[in-house]
Amino acid sequence: MTVSRYCSLSKSTTPVVALLVSAFGAYGQGNDEPAQLVAPRPVYRVLDAPGASFSYVLNAPPDDPPFLEIHDSTGALVASIRSDTMLPGLNRVEWDLRWEPPMQVALRTTPPENPHIWEEERYHGKDTRPVGHKGLEQTQFGPIAAPGHYTLELHVDAKTYRQPFDILLPPNSHGTDADVQASVRLQLRLRDDIRSVATMVNDIERMRKQIEDQRKKAPGPALEEMDGKLKAVEFKLLSPADMIGDDKNDAIGARLYVNFLWLNLSLSTGTGKNAGGGDYAPTDTQLSLTADLEKELHAVEAEYKKLLDDPGLSAFRRVK
After folding, report:
1. Which end of the chain is more exposed for a tag (fewer CB within 10 A), N or C?
2. What is the signed CA dihedral for 299, 304, 306, 308, rounded to 10 degrees?
C-alpha cells in the first residue's frame, strides 16, 4: 500500500549530487543508469519519533513516478513509499520506521442513539465514519520495525535498484534484539487479527446500510429480523458505544476491535495511561490475552460464516 504521508522530498544541483553519490557510494551503479540509489546508513530504532532518510538520484525524468519499498530479511514488504516528484536531481524520502498500519473500521449505519449523526459537520459529504473511542487515534499506526537486516528498493519505470541497510537498537535500549523482534512479531500477528475484525465489521456495515435504506422505504419484520442477526454478530466485535460518534461515551465494556487495538498499542508506545513495552519482549500476560482474544475471534468468525449462509442475506452480499 502506498504511504505517501512519509514522503518529504528535496532536490539539489548536479555537482552536489555527484559529491554525495561519491561519498556514500552507489554499489557500482553507473552514471548511464536512469537512477542511482544511495547506500543508506544504519538506522537507530528510537521510540520517540523514529525515522530514517533515504536518498536517490534521478538522472533523467522517468515516465512514471518512482516509488520505494522496504523489505525485511524474509522478503516481507514492510512499507511502500511513492514519490511525488519526477524531476532530475537528488531526492530524499523520509520513512517513520513503521510497518503498514492496521485496517480501520468504516461505519456506515445510523446509530439509534444518535439519529442525526450524519448531519454533524465533521461527517458532511462522507458516507463512512471511524469508530468513536477516546484515544483510538493512537492506535492507527503500524509497529516500529524491529532491529535486523532490511533491503531498500527503488523502482524507476522498469528498473529496480536495491541497497541493504540495518536497523539497530540504540545503546540505551532496555531490551535485546531478540526481545524486540518477538514483540514486533506479536504486534504483526495482532495487526492481522485487527484486519480480520475490521473486515467483518465493514462487510456487516455494508449489508446493514442496505437494510437501513430499504427499511426507510418499506419497513417490514423480515428486514428487521435480518438486521438484528447482523447486529448480534457486530456487537461482539464493537460495542454500541463505539458507534455513536461520542469518544467520551465508553461506559459499555470494549469488544474485540478495541481490545485488540489496546493490546497492540501496549506492546509498542503505550496507551497514554500506561507506558508501552516497545523495548521489551512480550509478557506472559500479553501472550495469554492474545490467545484469549483470538479464541473469541475464531468463535465470532464461525458464527459469522454460518450467518452468511442465510438465504435472506444473498441480495445484500452482492453489493460491496
Report:
1. C
2. -170
Single-letter amino acid code for the residue at 190: L
Q: What's the N-to-C CA distance of the chain in angstroms?
A: 20
With a cut of 50, say whether residue 10 has pLDDT above it. Answer: no
Distance (Å, rounded) from C-alpha 224 to C-alpha 157?
53
Residue 266 has pLDDT above 70, yes or no: yes
| Average pLDDT for the chain | 86
Cell numbers representing residue 114 in the block: 444518535
* HSE-up of residue 63 (Cα within 13 Å, Cβ side): 3
Is a pLDDT exceeding 90 seen at residue 136? Answer: no
In this structure, what C-alpha cell is assigned to residue 8?
A: 518529504
| Nearest CA-CA partner of 276 in 264, 284, 268, 285 | 268
Cβ atoms of 69 and 77 within 8 Å: the answer is: yes
Q: Given the C-alpha cell 498499542, which residue does it identify?
A: 265
pLDDT in tens, 71-86: 999 999 999 999 888 8
Range of the domain at 306: 117-141+175-317
Name the domain count of the chain: 2
> How far does Cα 291 stand from its chain's mean position?
22
Q: Is the pLDDT of residue 27 over 70?
A: no
10 Å Cβ neighbour count for 73?
11
